[in-house]
Amino acid sequence: MSTLCIAFVIYSATIYTSGTAATHDQRMSDEARHGQQLYQEKNCVACHQFYGLGGYMGPDLTNAISRRGEAVSRAFITAGTASMPNFQLSNDEVTALVEFLRFVDKTGTYPPQDYDVLWTGGVSQEDDPR
Length: 130
Ligand code: HEC
Known about the structure:
By secondary structure, this protein is mainly α. The protein has a domain of 85 residues: Cytochrome c-like domain (Cytochrome Bc1 Complex, Chain D, domain 2), CATH 1.10.760.10. Helices cover 45% and strands 6% of the residues. The chain contains 5 helices and 4 strands. The strands form 2 sheets. Strands 1-2 form a two-stranded antiparallel sheet. Strands 3-4 form a two-stranded antiparallel ribbon. Strand 3 and strand 4 form a beta hairpin. Helix 2 crosses helix 5 and helix 4 packs across helix 5. It is elongated, with a radius of gyration of 19 Å. The structure holds heme C. Heme C binds next to helix 3 and helix 4.
C-alpha cells in the first residue's frame, strides 16, 4: 500500500510540474499585454477563437501569425473586411494586437498535428513544424 502511495506522489509531482517552468521568452512583453487588453476591450473573442474556444464567425487566431504572416494579420486588423469590423485602431494599437497574437502563436499549435503520446500519458509536440 505504501509503495502505491509513494508511486502516486511521484507520478503526480512529475505530471504537474514537468514543462511548467517559464523561460524568459515565454513571458508576455508589455506591448503584448497591451494587445491582450485591447483584444478583451474590443471583444475580438466574440468572433475569434484561441485553441478552438470563442465565437465562430471568424477564424481561429491561435496560429494566425505563422499561418497568414504578420503583414496580412496587420491588414485585417487595420482595415477589417466585409465580415470583420474596422475598429479604427491607431498604428500602435495594431502593433500591440499583432504582438499579442505573436505571443499566442508561440504557445502551441492548434489544431494539434503530429504529437506522440509519452509513456507518462502526456503528449509531446516535438515534431511541431513551426
Ligand atoms: C464581428 C466579428 C469579428 C470581430 C469582432 C473581429 N473579427 Fe477578426 N475576423 C472576422 C472574420 C469574419 C474574419 C475573416 C474575414 C475574411 O476572410 O474576410 C476575420 C479575420 C481576422 C484576421 C485574419 C485571420 C486569418 O486567419 O485570416 C485577424 C488577424 C483578425 N480577424 C483579428 C481580429 C482582432 C485582433 C479583432 C479584435 C480587435 C477582431 N479580429 C475582431 C470577424 C471578426
